[in-house]
Structure formats: C-alpha cells, structure tokens
Design a protein that fits this description.
Layout: H1 3-14, H2 19-23, H3 29-36, H4 44-53, H5 58-61, H6 70-82, H7 86-93, H8 105-120, H9 126-139, H10 143-159, H11 163-180, H12 186-202, H13 206-223, H14 229-242, H15 246-262, H16 266-282, H17 286-300, H18 305-317, H19 321-329, H20 340-359, H21 363-377, H22 384-396
C-alpha cells in the first residue's frame, strides 16, 4: 500500500465513512479500493475530490510540509493566474529557484504556474520548470498529471516555430495519457485535440486538422462537455474557407457566431467577426467589412494589428491610397501571433505597401517590400495571404 492509499484509508475509517460513501458518484467502490491498497494511483482531479470529502488539502496525502510557505504561495499564484498576472508570478517564483526546492506536490504546481507565466511573458526558464514538475509527479506515480505538464511544452515549441516537434509531443502525450489514465478527463482530451489540430494546420495538413476538430466536437457531444467548442467551430470555418469549401465554411462560421453570442464570449466573438471582415474584404463586400472592423475595435476596446491590416485592405480596395498606406504602416506583429496563417495575414501588409509604392513610381521600394514579405512567408504552408504575397513578389522580380 502506498503512503497516499494508507492515508486515504486511515482518514476514511477515522471519519467512519464506508468506501461507497467516499467514492460517491466520482468513482466506483472498486477503484477506491485499488487506490487504498496501492494498486492504482489517483489522478490529481480524483485526489482533490478525495481530499475535499475527507476535509484535507491534497498535499496532506503526499506528505507535504515544506516549511517554506510554498503552500500559501501556490494559493497566491492560483489567484494571480486567474487574473493573468503573469509577470507577478515570475517575480514571486524566481527568487525561490536559487535554492533547493523539496519534491512536493505544491512545488510541482508552483512550477506549472511558473512555466505558463514564462511562456506568456516570453521569459526563459519554462522548460526547466516543466522538467521539475514532471519529475515530482512521476515520483509519486501521478503519470496523468505528468503527461499534462509535458503538454505545456507544446506552447513553447509552437511559439518557436517548431510545428513538427509540437505535433510529435502532443501525440506522445496522448499515447502516455491513454496508457496510464485512470478514469476519463474530457477537458484534457479536448485540449489535446485542440493542440493537435493547431499543429497540423500550421504544417499545412488541413484535412488532417479538420478530422481532429470534428473528432473533438463528437467527443464534446458524447460527453456533454462543450469546452473549446467555439474555437473548434471557428477554426473549422476558416479551415473550410482556405480549402475552398465555402458552403461548409459558412455553416461552421455561423455555428461559431451563434455559440459565442449564446455564451456572451466577447473575446471569441471578436475573433469571429474579424474573420468575417477578412472574408468580406477578400470577396469585395467592402462596406460590410468596414462595419465589422469597427465593431471588433469596439469589442476589444483597442485597435489591434488585425484591425489596421483589414482597414488597410478596405482603403486599398476602395481607392484611398494615402489612408491605406497609413493603416498598413501601423501593422505590428504581436508577440503572441505564432501560427503561420496569422503571421501570413499580417506580413501581407508589406505586399500591399509594395503595390502602393509602385503606384507612386517607387519601384525600388516596391521590390524591397515585396521581397521582405516573400522571405518571411517562404517556408509557410500555402494559404490565401501567402498566395497574394507570392503574386506581388513576382510582379516586381520577373527576371528571377
């Protein structure tokens, strides 16, 4: 019997609870018996459930008593994470990394928060934090938690353009999760589907990405868990559009908008409306595009890079060259734009400015701007914006 199982069984008997009472609807009596007798390890979700039923913190079952105030710090970090205070998390955790940290659950959770904060603040140290958390979880036999932490490294790989490596990692984590899971963690499975779909699309594997997203929606429906649903619907709409299936694209874009409106998710709604504005611009419905561009600025309460990009395209196509030039000049690539499709859309600003330069008779500038855009997207998979950039490049480099 493991220390975890011993403590659960001891405390259950002390409180006069039967296995059936403690298991409740969360698990079977047989599963609880296996945990108590050391034949199975609970996932963190199950451990937290058992701890709550037994009136303890989860750390009690893992023998945590670090004497360094880490438990209290973890509670602070949890609040910081909810409020997206990533720089504050880095500030609080960094001084502790200079000393030797105990191998406790709270330290593993602290490392998780720190790794995510490093990613959001573009700070080094995230990968090492992930390794530390994995070591701790595997020490206690919490292999599903270990798999979840490894998954965090997907964001690091993806943000550095290592799309193939990020896909390999997701599939490795999925295999490990399937082999070692206890019970079903639908939220985590949907996260894996999301990461796999994004990685596949970044590699230009649109059909495979689409299949993964459809499988995710099937799982959501079966389990009645609609986590990330609006993102899958939105991405499917864009996927079908890039693939030329406008009927399917319209269907999923409509569903995505209805879902975002029903859940009052303004962030997702802004993404959806900007995608609609982009399509209106591409298909010559400029008045509708402008209306949505301004609507998104109101929803986001700011003028983003995508705002200036689509506004520039609107001005370019309606003959307002000076306004278009000014708008394209305001397009700055966000630090959080990692996907080749998103980057291609914004890099196209240089291609438009190249064409505007040519209209002014500045052919040397046109050649330079078109070449810069071309080099930036050269290794990206084919998409609408990359096509436009390549066509522009050929206009001003015909002899090459």
């Amino acid at each position: 019997m493991t220390k975890i199982g011993e403590r659960i069984k001891h405390l259950r008997k002390q409180l006069g609870m039967t296995q059936t009472e403690l298991a409740g609807e969360h698990m079977t009596k047989s599963m609880l018996s296996q945990i108590e007798n050391g034949k199975a390890m609970p996932s963190m979700r199950t451990l937290r459930y058992l701890a709550e039923q037994l009136g303890q913190d989860a750390g009690y079952f893992l023998g945590e008593d670090d004497g360094q105030g880490i438990s209290e710090l973890v509670r602070e970090l949890e609040t910081d994470m909810k409020h997206k205070e990533y720089a504050e998390i880095v500030r609080k955790v960094q001084p502790l990394l200079e000393g030797k940290l105990p191998m406790t659950l709270d330290v593993a959770r602290m490392m998780e928060y720190y790794a995510e904060a490093c990613f959001h603040t573009v700070h080094s140290g995230g990968e090492e934090a992930i390794r530390k958390a994995v070591d701790i979880y595997e020490r206690f036999g919490l292999f599903v938690e270990s798999a979840k932490v490894k998954y965090m490294n997907y964001a690091h790989l993806f943000s550095h353009g290592k799309y193939g490596s990020s896909l390999d990692l997701i599939r490795e984590v999925r295999r490990e999760y399937e082999q070692k899971k206890i019970g079903k963690d639908t939220l985590f499975e949907l996260e894996l589907y999301y990461a796999e779909a994004v990685s596949l699309s970044a590699l230009g594997m649109n059909e495979e990405s689409r299949d993964v997203m459809l499988a995710a929606l099937t799982l959501s429906k079966e389990q009645e868990v609609y986590y990330l649903t609006e993102h899958f619907l939105r991405m499917l709409g864009n996927n079908y559009y890039e693939s030329g299936d406008k009927e399917k694209s319209n269907e999923y874009r409509r569903k995505a908008k209805l879902y975002a409106e029903a859940t009052d998710n303004k962030v997702t709604l802004a993404y959806i409306e900007m995608s609609e504005a982009r399509i209106h611009n591409r298909e010559g419905r400029y008045a509708q595009a402008l209306e949505l561009i301004e609507k998104v600025a109101d929803l986001q309460q700011k003028k983003s890079a995508n705002y200036w990009m689509e506004l520039g395209i609107y001005y370019y196509n309606t003959g307002h060259d000076e306004e278009a030039w000014d708008a394209f000049g305001r397009v700055v690539m966000p630090e959080t734009a990692y996907h080749p499709l998103d980057r291609s859309n914004l890099y196209a600003a240089d291609a438009y400015m190249a064409r505007l330069s040519a209209k002014r008779g500045l052919m040397s500038d046109a050649a330079k701007l078109s070449a810069r855009a071309y080099e930036r997207v050269r290794n990206f998979p084919l998409n609408y914006s990359k096509n436009f950039i390549e066509e522009t490049y050929r206009l001003f480099h015909k002899s090459e």
